[in-house]
Amino acid sequence: MIYFDNAATSFPKIQEAYKAAYSAMTEYGANPGRSGHSLSIRAARAVMSCREELAQHLKISEPMRIAFTYSATDALNTAIMGLLNRGERVIAGPYEHNAVMRPLKELEKEGQIELTVLKTTDSEEIRSAVKPNTTLGVFSHASNVTGEITDLMRVSRVLGEYGIPLLADCAQTAGVLDISPQATGAKLIAMPGHKGLQGLHGTGALYIAEGYELRPLRYGGTGSLSESMYQPTEMPDALESGTQNLVGLAALCEGVKFVGGHIDEIREYEGFLTDNLREMLAELSGIRVLRTGSSEYVGVTAFTIDGCTSGEAADFLSENGICVRGGLHCAPSIHSILGTLSTGAVRVSVGLFNTLDEIKALVSALQRLLKSLR
Ligand SMILES: Cc1ncc(COP(=O)(O)O)c(C=O)c1O
User: Fold this and answer.
1) CA spacing 20 to 30 A to 290: which of 110, 125, 210, 297?
2) In sequence order, which residues have a C-beta less than 8 Å from that of residue 347 and are 6 or more positions away?
3) Counting beta carbons within 10 angstroms of the beta carbon of residue 165, is it exposed (0 to 12), middle (13 to 18) or buried (19 or more)?
4) Whether residue 63 has its Cβ less than 6 Å from ligand 1
5) How many Å apart are CA 307 and CA 373, to the nearest integer?
6) Beta strands across the sheet bearing 88-92
7) Is the fold of 2-9+262-373 the same as that of 16-259?
8) pLDDT given for residue 152 in this prediction
């Protein structure tokens, strides 16, 4: 089986992540931070190590400004629901995933907030969207459809002219690009643990700069201040009610460690595979690779095929042992811009363990498909 759906979740993960998960499950699978016994303390240490590792990766000095979440969606909801107040306005980038659009649209529908969705990421368009009540900008670092990268530092500088913080959706860039506050200018950074960072399903994180306090999405036990029936206000407990995903975070710790030490090689290797894929696709008549115009991309490529829907193509590839994703990828905004709302697109997303031979196998399967459509 050839797996090209790493934008949804990376697979396989590095061996160290599996080993750490197994060891957390079988050697010290207690509830982290809830009790004073040795296994609970060991579990809490594992969670703390992951937080410290991620802080180092994000080049921040304060690990406690990172809240663990269940996914990038959970991190984005935590930021959006926790930060915005009635009457405020948000500027959203043009290519946002439903993990951003749905919470924003829900708040807009309820009359809680006003929303401007941009058509491009041009600085002038951002400037002209700013209104006196704008309090947040939300932009993805790279599109999960075209893979195209947005220069978040430029975006955050433009927003910063008006004192507006940037919430960065780094779902497709965590583990591949520098997503640190220094590199993105973001005050809030949402990321999945289970994609480029090599952690397991059910992990994600939200970095929140000093000076930003969020209302929690969930209230409950944190293992701290148990005498109080009110939610602790200290980070990260304020945002981390409920039992932590010890197994997932133990794996994520190893993932972040690995990725941190190899980020340039990862970017280069995934770039090599993607450049090759795009060159080979350009040779196939009847295939159109989707782009909005940015010249830089991560390892995500989407295309349409004349004469067949993306679902039919994905099914054909699956029958031939190749896993890709058809449809709209939870991102109707960008498909609307690209004119592919009705057809969807085939998305190929590469990861650490893909090879050039697998790209060639994909391209030859596509050649067979094209031939069968003639
Ligand atoms: C750009 C983008 N944002 C958010 C998400 C949601 O991530 P998660 O699956 O961790 O909830 C995804 C998932 O593919 C994504 O690509």
Assistant:
1) 125
2) 5, 7, 144, 145, 300, 301, 302, 324, 325, 326, 329
3) buried
4) no
5) 7
6) 66-69, 204-208, 188-192, 166-169, 134-140, 88-92, 113-117
7) no
8) 98
Give CA–CA dist 107/260, Å, rounded: 36
For the chain of 374 residues, list the mean pLDDT of each consecutive stretch of 10. Answer: 98 98 98 92 97 98 98 98 98 98 98 98 98 98 98 98 98 98 98 98 98 96 91 96 97 98 97 98 97 94 96 97 96 94 96 98 98 92
Q: How far is the CA of 130 from the centre of ligand 1 (A)?
A: 26
Beta carbons of 253 and 272 less than 8 angstroms apart: no
With beta carbons less than 8 A apart as the criterion, state whether 335 and 362 touch. no
Q: Find where tokens 């401007």 sit.
A: 116
Q: Give the pLDDT score at 303.
A: 98
Look-up: residue for tokens 């940037």? Answer: 166
As to burial, measured by CB atoms within 10 angstroms (0-12 exposed, 13-18 middle, 19+ buried), residue 293 is exposed
User: What pLDDT is recorded for position 295?
Assistant: 87
CATH number of 16-259: 3.40.640.10
Q: Token pair 């009359």 is at which residue? A: 111
Q: Which of 5, 11, 73 to mutate to test the pocket of ligand 1 (most atoms within 8 A of CB)?
A: 73
Q: Round to whole Å and give the CA distance between 73 and 56.
A: 23
3-class SS of residue 12:
coil
